[in-house]
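A student in our group prepared the protein record below, which I am reviewing. Here is the record exactly as it was handed to me.
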Amino acid sequence: MKKPALALLATLALPLAARAEVRTFTSTDGRTLRASLVAVDGDKVTIQLPDGRKITAAADRFSAADRQYFAAWKPAVAGAAAAASGASDWFQWRGPNRDGSSTESGLNRDWESKPPELLWHVKGLGGGMSSVVIHGGKIFTMGKVDGAPHLICRNLADGAEVWATEVPGGDDPNCTPTVDPSSGLVFGMTKDGHLSAARVADGELVWSTSFGDDFGGKMESGWGYSESPLIDGDHLICTPGARDGLLAALDKMTGEPVWKTDVSDAELGDKGNFGAGYSSPVISNAGGVKQVVQLTGKGLVGVDAADGKLLWNYNRIANGTANIPTPIISGDYVFGSTGYADGGSALLKLSKRGSGIEAEEVYYYKGRELQNHHGGMILVDGHIYLGHGHNNGFPQCVELESGDIKWPGDRGPGRESAAIAYADGLLFFRYQDHTMALIEADPDQYTVKGHFKLATSNANSWPHPVIQGGKMYIRDQDDLMCYDVGG
């Protein structure tokens, strides 16, 4: 493991304050509102809407589940990076809150009469399935360039190269980097499990560690490490996939382990294969316990964010090939899904039981009924939107708490799997065949608002789209494109 110089550490900024997670609240008369809880003061609560407006109201105006959430609420430390980055920065995997949602508004709602214009298109990013992240007027991604994996920084305005830093590792990377605005570091991982930190300002490599050599870790199957690490205060959360370190928290400044999740004596179930999955970790405060939730080769797990202790696990949705989608967190609920013939979908409710957490299955769907392969799932106003089907992206909407399936689930405008993002009441479906579609996020009806073919078609069109500043950013292997999706 490479150590940073003390002089370099002295130049890095201190962490900033945390921000609460975004969730859907329900009033006693059944209305829903997507917002962040920012304060609890006795019997009063304050929530913040996506447009920045704050509302203070009596707690008893909300549902029983919401009142339980208020009682257990603690500011999510993982939100500190979001607060430091600014609301619009898409600085980590799936956006500021790791949920695939952008706070953008005033976007183009009719791609039939006004197709998005390609504003710029650059090359030179190399091979790999990494998506992009955005911070401080810069774009960050990973790619295999000149035979070696690199962390890459480009200008947001025109895609011009700022720096490209070679990092230890092997083949084309799949990891979407994570920027930590409070420390000035960007973190990226290669397929063989080398996790590296570099300076945002100039790309200088600060430290690297190997999941295989330093942790004895492994993947569940052979496509290589793909997760995007999670910033939680001073910690960098990752998934080495070892028996004595299934998950781990590293000191983000040095890469040294702070805690590891030992599952040597744990019963994780019969389905799937042991090791790291292809998912990325998220933070939950379910049951009043701050925890890291991750989808591994053996299914969903929750570990205590303070010490890494395994709190609960759920094996039923694990498949034996590749467990991929990032779980959805909503209050005391966790929704997980996987593809392949033996995958499926489930909603869990987490409750405090003594010194631990109990994970109760609310409902389960077999793979043929509901499953997401690898394009991601998004929760909007109490409904989950996803591309359903293994190696398919049939647009589907599911009510989170009841499991009611809302849309017909027919084939959409494109073919095969679909990577999705959300903004301004709209779903951006990027199909594997390079079709880009706009679909209204309306549980009551399925409406396509237009579609077009992307400017390039290099390999499977898998990297997730990113929406910021009225623009849509698309990575396609060596190519990076910026489209105008403003109103």
Observations:
- The mean pLDDT is 91.
- The first helix runs from residue 6 to 10.
- The domain at 22-74 is CATH 2.30.30.700 (SH3 type barrels.).
- The helical segments are 6-10, 64-72, 80-85, 211-215.
